[in-house]
Amino acid sequence: MKYIIFALALFATYSFTVSNAPKPALQMGLLKYNGGGDWYSNPTALPNLAQFCNEELGTEFMTDYATVEVGSAEIFNHPFVHMTGHGNVVFSGAEAENLRTYLIGGGFLHIDDNFGMDPFVRVAMKQVFPEYEFVELPFEHEIYKQTFEFNNGLPKIHEHEGKSPQGFGILHEGRVVCFYTYECDLGDGWEDQDVHKDPQEVRRAALQMGANIVQYAFER
Prior knowledge:
Radius of gyration: 16 Å
Helix content: 25-40%
Shape: globular
Strand order of the largest sheet: 2-1-3-4-7-6-5
Mean pLDDT: 90
Low-confidence stretches: 1-21
CATH superfamily: Domain of unknown function DUF4159
Distance between the termini: 22 Å
Largest sheet: 7 strands, mixed
């Protein structure tokens, strides 16, 4: 319980509004999970997203990220946690319960399918919220209407199977606590340009959408 109280206090003291008051140091978290999936994919993604948010939104994120395990108390120190990979995802019962407590208590999870994790992450998140389903968010949802406008939903960063990108949410008490980006690969677009050699306009669209997700997570 003490970790939830700490996290909620941290969320309450941070905002995107201009203020002369010092902002607490914030650090994005990267979720480490079991099952063999490469949770460590895209190592340059979160540092670049943090820097972009600092420049475009006026945030003060640390530009290095913390690796947090699903079942750890450390997760409660990070209001925004990112999860990615290409393969299997396995949560123990205790890990699923810990992640549920984190999300209900005010935390936010962004899951980005790096290609191949879709069937596994859906099963894992069903352990976390057996009463909820992923629902596709309409293009009018506020997550697409933050600082940057995405009138057609998620940008398409990498082809994968050529399907249209989809943004799914798990809603708790009317608010998205987990946002899942599928057939999109935002994280690849956040990486250093020389990693995937995406055009600058594609990388910028990915970073803008990422900033929207971060902004939504803190303003909800």
